[in-house]
Amino acid sequence: MSFQNPVFIPGPTNIPERLRKACDMPTIDHRSPLFGQILHPAREGVRRVLKSDSAQIFIFPSTGTGGWETALSNCLSAGDTVLAARNGMFSHRWIDMCQRHGLGVEIVETPWGHGLPADRYEEILTADTGHRIKAVLATHNETATGVKSDIAAVRRALDAAGHPALLFVDGVSSIASMDFRFDDWGVDVAVTGSQKGFMLPPGLAITAFSAKAMAATDTATLPRTFFDVKDMAKGYANNAYPYTPAVGLLNGLNEACGMLLAEGLDNVFARHHRIAEGVRAAVRAWGLELCAVSPEVYSDTVSAIRTPEGFNATDIVSHAASAYGVAFGTGLGEVAGKVFRIGHLGSLTDVMALSGLATAEMVMADLGLDIRLGSGVAAAQDYYRGCRIETRKAAA
């Protein structure tokens, strides 16, 4: 692999030099007021990125998986039931975690490539008159299939059923890249990580808790120590952690939030959509299809691209790495060997995306697929140029 080439995996993402420098800092006393000048602005920045006025932000030295465990262990008790759809590898892993924690899971099996079935959620929640379901799990962006789901529709399902269950949302590959509305969607716990839209190295589990979720921590009995949000809140009150924090990453997170907010969240989301649309134009020009079944569920952070029947899509990823020093994502779970993934999130531009598309074309041609060099790149170029022309017209 080459350190000079950008990566096109759905995380970890490319790290801007500004953020690399922010993470590279001298040692400070992490129990001093100086640390508070990093910690509290970082938490406030995350809250603003989530579009929340009141969420409690808790940041752990971990990854998104640790964030999932934080949500479960702080809000639920052994034997509780949760409702979840399995529509990809990461929703599957969250279900597995629930089961390992002794939770009952009502699973709605959903074809991979489809979004969350909010209508089915509403039916199940309406029938649950005894309110045995304590939480609904929703994966906003299924990274394995390139599928985004409508979290507002899941909230409407809960409201229509008059159900008090908590709403937990996995926003690991969506938050800070695609529009996420913690307050408007009535999210109770949101989970993400540092290595995706925040453009940092892995190492931080970033969580947000609503007032309702915080109230649930008073009665939840699942074991928790490292991920205890009450311990964390006590530490925050004293500009500290209950243990040693990842100071450099937190400083990077503070800087990352500043970059995102300075660009403007609407501009960040529009940039991701534009780049993704260019990738999708290239896929159509190649004569290939996405794993996502329809435009309303297309992800703006990752595209999972189906290859022809009988072709091992993993060969594209391995050949790109060995021949051209470029990283794409492999297929996972049910779509392993059937798709390769192009990540288009975080620190990325139209020009960078074009380099990834050009590499993918060379790789597929090398491997004997019927791909005309330049076809996908040209389709993406046409789209990107059209966007620029429309922008200039609007500004005139």
Automatic annotation (TrEMBL):
Single Gene Ontology BP annotation: glycine biosynthetic process, by transamination of glyoxylate
Binding residue positions for substrate: 341
Residues bearing the modification N6-(pyridoxal phosphate)lysine: 196
Highest taxon above the source species: Bacteria
Cofactors that this protein relies on: pyridoxal 5'-phosphate
Ranges where the Aminotransferase class V domain occurs: 30-330
UniProt xrefs under SUPFAM superfamilies: PLP-dependent transferases
Entry-linked Pfam families: Aminotran_5
Alphabetized UniProt keyword annotations: Aminotransferase, Pyridoxal phosphate, Transferase
MF GO annotations: alanine-glyoxylate transaminase activity; L-serine-pyruvate transaminase activity
PANTHER family named among the record's database cross-references: ALANINE--GLYOXYLATE AMINOTRANSFERASE 1, AMINOTRANSFERASE CLASS V
Assigned protein family: Belongs to the class-V pyridoxal-phosphate-dependent aminotransferase family.
Protein name: Serine-glyoxylate aminotransferase apoenzyme
Taxonomic lineage of the native organism: Bacteria, Pseudomonadati, Pseudomonadota, Alphaproteobacteria, Rhodobacterales
